[in-house]
Amino acid sequence: MKVVNDFDEYQILDMADGQKLEKWGQFLLSRPDPQIIWDEKVNPSLWNQVDATYNRSKTGGGEWHIHSSLPSSWVIHYQDMSFALKLMGFKHTGLFPEQAYNWNYIREKIRKENRPLKVLNLFAYTGAASVAALMEGASVTHVDSSRGMIDWAKENVRLNHLEDKPIRFLVDDVVKFVKRELRRGNTYDIIIMDPPSFGRGNKNEVWNIEKDLYSLVKDCTELLSHKPVLFLINSYSTGLSKTVLENILNLTIQKKYAGIVSSDELGIKMKESSIVLPCGNYARWEKE
Question: Is the pTM of this model over 0.90?
Fold first, then answer.
């Protein structure tokens, strides 16, 4: 497991009863996590200081309960990057801190190439990976089906003073976009994707990761340049193990380009504890 332990402005302070107590900058949030199946609180007094709690509904979904004068948006920093946070439906804040491992890896790969690189970020959400690539001088195509997420990603780019850097923002269905790019003959040196388990495009296109991921990766293989650098898949779908993701890369990209395929879990350690919360899987192909 790759454990993120250098995100100073994000910390897990406690975990119990299906909830994690997190510090996001100066604010404390309590959010559900199905993998927290124990009931022992290490720091019970801290739970009384929480600024907002997301409670699940027995009928599905849930809602935030605000306990303090929490702002509608605030900024958090990781190393030299800044990101806007907001309380979203279905417990999200607009950032996945465990992905800091991948942000660093993307930046390192771009730096090592020391040449202009084109990056395609699919299911690009609020743009943390896009910011990471722009920071190192790559040009980025950022694709998401949600107008709201695209606007948020633009906000993150502005926060990092990167608005004059080469980035295209596209509100589009990822599968349809990739097929159009194939017809256009466009190629990319790095492809990143963070597909949801299920999703719906801006024209009600339906996405199911178990049915659609393999064919998408297969198409994306043809979008790679003659000198590809990295292909990265993130997944939070409990039905897909990291080995399955690795198998997909071996059956597609590795057949065309000799490189190294690997996979692992991502996790975050609870502060002042040996307990680590698993936070999804990744698999990647990279050039040798």
Answer: yes
